[in-house]
UniProtKB/TrEMBL annotation:
<feature type="region of interest" description="Disordered">
    <location>
        <begin position="127"/>
        <end position="156"/>
    </location>
</feature>
<feature type="compositionally biased region" description="Polar residues">
    <location>
        <begin position="147"/>
        <end position="156"/>
    </location>
</feature>
<dbReference type="Pfam" id="PF05037">
    <property type="entry name" value="DUF669"/>
</dbReference>
<protein>
    <submittedName>
        <fullName>Uncharacterized protein DUF669</fullName>
    </submittedName>
</protein>
<dbReference type="InterPro" id="IPR007731">
    <property type="entry name" value="DUF669"/>
</dbReference>
Length: 156
């Protein structure tokens, strides 16, 4: 039997994670790996997204892109999503998935109910360039009207 030196009094218990609300979030890809599909007939690129600001900063979400699959439709969907990610972060020629790491983007998240368990989970359904706060410009006062040469001198 393996020996452990762990005292649960020193660590707060995990409370689990509920799905975050649907919406747009600023995120980065923090990890990526290629894994075999369950049936062994293909592979997928698993991407780990970290939310980088707001109330849910630090939360993780995952996306799995079928890069090899007997279904060409599944591969086409994955390629389209990967293209959206690449465009969102400005990496248009991708050679290693690590090129996508730590580059901010806006992800669109939706909530999905698992029909077997009735639990809510999240899906990433969109990728876009990061949203940046645009500075608010103060309205400038209109310049005083300029008298034209056709105006009588006493009206200038």
């Amino acid at each position: 039997m393996p020996a452990l030196t762990f005292n649960a009094n020193n660590v707060a218990p995990s409370t689990g994670f509920d799905a975050i609300p649907a919406g747009k979030y600023q995120a980065v890809i923090s990890q990526s790996s290629i894994k075999a599909t369950r049936n062994g007939a293909g592979s997928y690129l698993e991407l780990t997204f970290d939310i980088i600001d707001g109330e849910y900063k630090g939360r993780k979400l995952w996306s799995r892109l079928n890069i090899e699959n007997p279904s060409q439709k599944a591969v086409a969907v994955a390629q389209s999503e990967l293209s959206a990610i690449c465009h969102a972060v400005g990496v248009l020629e991708l050679f290693q998935s690590e090129q996508l790491h730590d580059l901010p983007m806006t992800i669109t998240v939706r909530c999905v109910k698992n029909p077997d368990t009735d639990e809510m989970s999240n899906e990433i359904k969109g990728y876009a360039a990061p949203q940046t706060a645009t500075p608010v410009r103060k309205a400038q006062a209109a310049p005083p009207p300029v008298a034209s040469n056709n105006t009588a001198p006493w009206k200038r």
